[in-house]
Amino acid sequence: MLTWPHPGTDWANSLKDVEPVFLEIAKSVLRYQNLLISCEHVARLQELDRDLKAYAAKHGLPGKVITVPAPANDTWARDHGPITIEEDGKAVVLDFRFNAWGGKFPWEKDNALNSHLANAGAFGDSPIRTVDFVLEGGSIESDGQGSILTTSECLMTPSRNPSMDRTDIEQLLAETLGASRLLWLNHGYLAGDDTDSHIDTLARFCAPDHICYVACPEVADEHYSALAAMEEELREFRQPDGRPYRLTALPWPDPVYDEDGERLPATYANFLIINEAVLLPVYGVAQDGQAVTILQGIFPEREIIPINCRPLIYQHGSLHCVTMQIPAGVVNP
């Protein structure tokens, strides 16, 4: 799923730079699977529908394009999009509340987006269930077997769910997501991050027993202490059977700054796993090639597709942040 940028978003002055990134993501996804796109700008959505269907047909791609007009404040589908679970063998679409990372930006349209998609029939016969809890998809990372990796900096921020403590949150995620345990990281920091330390920019499950993570080797870098402490926490985590996790450190990219000299949260952890491939954000820096090599070693059965996400990072997010996966059989092409 992609929520396409339009002139009513913060991308208004950079659409010529950012739309090619979205198009590259879209075309890469269509090589392997179906693609759901929503956009507030109906004329642009019609163009995308026509052009992407023609592209898929010309290249004989298996993916089908589904387009739905829907209002949106922004494009971060990972955080305002649906989270799908399986219940009694059937998919259920969960619609958590979204308040733009604790009320930092306008959010009303994004919060209503999943309802718009459901009303348009985008989720087929799968029921949609509203959950009265603020949760962004980028703040949780699941191994698919009941363990969820997250950060206390994000989930415990008072501007999201002020009446709930850690025990309350663990109970709610157990009830709604089937989580048998939460692995809480209490350290982890990226300059320029608006999300209060989303896990999907810091550490990711590559397999139920394998976590890759952001590591900063530069002692003089402002990130060094926080990320070294996070690395130690990851080393202390144990799998349900008591064994430590396999850990792989990701390269630390050269700093990327905006026009005001503010450092931006560019990391290689913000990759997207799709059918038979991994889409990897790169930033036009020296470490890009090393990141491709490391990801290929982690996912030897998948094609690693690097996508230059430098235009995305100027709005403080990257590739995983603008996408949301939906299980097969939910969206009717």
State mean pLDDT (0 to 100 scale). 96
CATH superfamily membership: L-arginine/glycine Amidinotransferase, Chain A
Q: Which class do the helix and strand fractions yield?
A: alpha/beta
The domain count comes to 1
**Overall morphology:** globular
Helical content band: 25-40%
Low-confidence parts lasting 5 or more residues at pLDDT below 50? none
CATH topology: L-arginine/glycine Amidinotransferase, Chain A
Organism: Marinobacter nitratireducens
Protein name: Agmatine deiminase
Pfam families: PAD_porph
InterPro entries: Peptidyl-Arg-deiminase_porph
Structure overview:
With 333 residues, the protein is α/β, with parallel strands linked by helices. It has one domain (2-322): L-arginine/glycine Amidinotransferase, Chain A, CATH 3.75.10.10. Helices cover 29% and strands 23% of the residues. The protein has 10 helices and 15 strands. The strands form 5 sheets. A 3-stranded parallel β-sheet has the order 1-2-3, covered by helices on one side. A 3-stranded mixed β-sheet has the order 4-5-6, covered by helices on one side. It has a 3-stranded mixed β-sheet with strand order 7-8-9. Helix 8 (224-236) links the parallel strand 11 (210-214) and strand 12. The two termini are 13 Å apart. 42% of the residues are buried. The model has no long low-confidence stretch (mean pLDDT 96). It comes from Marinobacter nitratireducens. One of its GO terms (molecular function) is protein-arginine deiminase activity. This is Agmatine deiminase. InterPro entries: Peptidyl-Arg-deiminase_porph. One of its GO terms (biological process) is putrescine biosynthetic process.
